[in-house]
């Protein structure tokens, strides 16, 4: 029993590492600067109107929130229903906490496959462009910006550190399974076959259906035949 628990723990750990590696691979490799962009609006969040830009490539998503002075008359261009803010990224809380007049543009990225599994958030102080990137602690590891992109807020690249549920859990389970098969599948199948053929589980010696205390060949306990 303890052996099975240890095996499951090893596979969950490897599944976790693989989930993070896949999310970071998506963050580094997928170019979201050329992704299809959805535009929407939010009225009066934290006493401020916002234009929300969602750049979406499925396994890589960037959502940007730009403070604007008003959305009146633009409802067709910036629909406000349903809310364009994703469940991950804490953008809603950040926008509502942002004090009026703060020059920050907020953004959040999410990456992962088959579901988005990790996210990170940023802010740009638009009054101190271009050296104005603000990355909250324990949110992301920043890496070299994507080359050839004019806007810093779009060229910015980071490896996210925060999980998105249930995508992260699904990734751990999904990537843990092939690790289990790869590491332990052969020995489990061999053990199963030996048991069904009346062979010693340890060495494969044919016990001929006899109820030995121990295998005559290797000395292993053969209780499975009793
Ligand atoms: Zn044996």
What ions, cofactors and ligands are bound?
zinc ion
Beta-strand fraction estimate: 15-25%
- Give the N-to-C terminal Cα separation: 20 Å
Structural class: alpha+beta
Low-confidence stretches: none
Tally the beta strands.
Answer: 9
Largest sheet, described in full? 7 strands, antiparallel
> Helix proportion of residues, in percent?
25-40%
Shape: elongated
Averaged pLDDT: 88
So how many helices? 4
Radius of gyration, in angstroms, nearest whole number: 27 Å
Summarize the structure.
By secondary structure, the chain is of the alpha+beta class. Helix content is 31%, strand content 23%.
List keywords for this structure.
alpha+beta; 226 residues; two-stranded antiparallel sheet; 9 strands; seven-stranded antiparallel beta sheet; 23% strand; binds zinc ion
Question: Would you mind describing this structure in some detail?
Answer:
With 226 residues, the protein is α+β, with helices and mostly antiparallel strands. It has a domain at 32-164. It is built from four helices and nine strands. The protein has helices at residues 2-29, 91-97, 152-155, 167-197, and strands at residues 36-42, 49-56, 60-68, 104-111, 118-125, 133-134, 140-143, 157-160, 162-163. Strands 1, 2, 3, 4, 5, 6 and 9 form a seven-stranded antiparallel sheet that branches. β2 and β3 (60-68) form a beta hairpin. α1 (2-29) packs across α4. The model has no long low-confidence stretch (mean pLDDT 88). The site of zinc ion has 8 residues, from loops.
């Amino acid at each position: 029993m303890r052996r099975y628990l240890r095996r499951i723990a090893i596979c969950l750990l490897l599944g976790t590492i693989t989930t993070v590696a896949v999310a970071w691979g998506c963050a580094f490799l997928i170019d979201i600067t050329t992704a299809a962009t959805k535009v929407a609006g939010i009225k009066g969040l934290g006493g401020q109107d916002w234009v929300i830009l969602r750049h979406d490539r499925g396994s890589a998503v960037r959502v940007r929130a730009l403070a604007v002075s008003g959305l009146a008359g633009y409802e067709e261009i910036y629909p406000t229903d349903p809310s364009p803010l994703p469940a991950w990224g804490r953008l809603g809380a950040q926008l509502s906490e942002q004090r009026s007049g703060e020059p920050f543009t907020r953004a959040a990225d999410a990456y992962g496959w088959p579901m988005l599994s990790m996210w990170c958030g940023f802010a740009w102080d638009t009054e101190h462009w271009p050296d104005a990137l603000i990355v909250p602690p324990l949110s992301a590891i920043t890496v070299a910006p994507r080359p050839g992109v004019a806007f810093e807020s779009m060229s910015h690249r980071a490896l996210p550190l925060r999980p998105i549920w249930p995508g992260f859990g699904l990734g751990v389970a999904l990537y843990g399974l092939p690790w289990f098969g790869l590491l332990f599948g052969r020995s489990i199948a061999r053990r199963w076959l030996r048991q069904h053929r009346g062979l010693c589980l340890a060495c494969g010696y044919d016990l001929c259906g006899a109820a030995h205390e121990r295998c005559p060949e290797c000395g292993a306990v053969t209780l499975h035949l009793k």
